[in-house]
Amino acid sequence: MCTVFAASFVVTAILLTLFLNYQHAATNLPIDLKSQIKDFTFVQILFKNLIVALILVSGFFLIKIPTILVLIANAAVLAFILTANIYTTGAWLYFILLVSIHGVAELTALFIAANIGFQKINLAKKQQRKQLLNRMLLVAALLALAAFLETCVTPLFWR
Hints:
The chain is mostly helical.
């Protein structure tokens, strides 16, 4: 699971870096996130992340295909955003720390959801249903924390 995410992240970052080099993209640009970022509300971010988590979990029912595809897509999007910003501004530590504020909780929740999507769970067994419910509640709590951090804390550090 983590291998799929990491491989997709690395491949996307390398391909984008090669593309930006080939296109002679501008570097050392000033960081101006405030004018480029749309303001999303807590509810919008939480809802989006809950949908992603549900799709990750749906791999449990759908032969793991949605789980793998969403892991690849999320890693590619994260790699694209970080690589493009780091390449054009050179501020790699700033962007990694900025994403880390909410990203640790968000990625942890999404990895737990992906883990559920990869498992074989017998819903006829009460103990396994209870474990599934507990994990899903943990995922929802972590995503709520991540959405709060993304809307209330991360913007405090935007330049």
